[in-house]
Amino acid sequence: MKSLEIRNLQKTYFDPYAGTKVTAVQDVSLDIREGEFVSVVGPSGCGKTTILNMVAGFLPATGGEIRVGGRPVKGPGADRGVVFQSFALFPWKTVLDNVGFGPKMRGVPKAERDRIAREYLALAGLSHAADRYPNELSGGMQQRVGVVRALANDPDVLLMDEPFASVDAQTRMTLQEELTRIWQEKQHTVLFITHDVGEAVFLADRVVVLSKGRVMRDIPVTLPRPRVWDEVTEDEDFKRLSAEVLHMVRAA
Ligand SMILES: Nc1ncnc2c1ncn2[C@@H]1O[C@H](COP(=O)(O)OP(=O)(O)OP(=O)(O)O)[C@@H](O)[C@H]1O
């Protein structure tokens, strides 16, 4: 796994409707250590998705620098895996082949990529769905397959933009628990974007609060791991931290 360094990142868009410039990211610096899980929260429009898209290499920065494992990001790359809220699984491919797609693109032979795909499906409790097609799965299962597909590429850095926002509350909790379990096993470096303060605190080693394109606070989360919701909801530190972060986001 590799570290992620973001230095004085800036992004200005041109708004063609208003005919003016919009500064989405003013000046963001953020270091994520190898194997660290960092959540980014902030009110709508504070620049979260813009930052993630620049780190993914989908969008050029107006200023500043992004480095993965010390190397400057110049565009998309296999060292970074991305999971969005809505993403398309290939409807004509089975779950196994969806998950094995990244390894296939890297030239991994069929038997080996099937082995990799089955290992990750097992980690997410999806072994039974390997031969099904996406339209035969529930929304929550499709979301899980999307996460597993990103993990199967074995990226150094995992970038997640509200990946669980569109599933029901119970499924979301299960997915959050699964993600922390898989992350503990694989130790990816993770940048996770969310609106949901409880989710941010539950998952992360640090929660970064953004306000108007700047880092407002960077808060360590020292809750013990593994984390499961039944225990975490009762935890006084979790309640205190969540309340504190919520207060900051509302004031941001
Ligand atoms: N392609 C674009 N062209 C012009 N302005 C944009 C573009 N994309 C985003 N913006 C503006 O940049 C700012 C930051 O947007 P961004 O999507 O990064 O915020 P966000 O924190 O992810 O918001 P949300 O939580 O609502 O998804 C907003 O003011 C938005 O309107």
TrEMBL record:
Protein name: ABC transporter ATP-binding protein
Chain ranges of the ABC transporter domain: 4-237
Family designation: Belongs to the ABC transporter superfamily.
InterPro entries assigned: AAA+_ATPase, ABC_transporter-like_ATP-bd, ABC_transporter-like_CS, ABC_transporter_ATP-bind, P-loop_NTPase
Source organism, top-level taxon: Bacteria
Position of the signal peptide: none
PANTHER family for this protein: ALIPHATIC SULFONATES IMPORT ATP-BINDING PROTEIN SSUB, TAURINE IMPORT ATP-BINDING PROTEIN-RELATED
GO aspect biological process, one term: quaternary ammonium group transport
Sorted UniProt keywords: ATP-binding, Nucleotide-binding, Transport
Organism of derivation: Enterovirga aerilata
Gene Ontology MF, one: ATP binding
Lineage: Bacteria, Pseudomonadati, Pseudomonadota, Alphaproteobacteria, Hyphomicrobiales
SMART domains: AAA
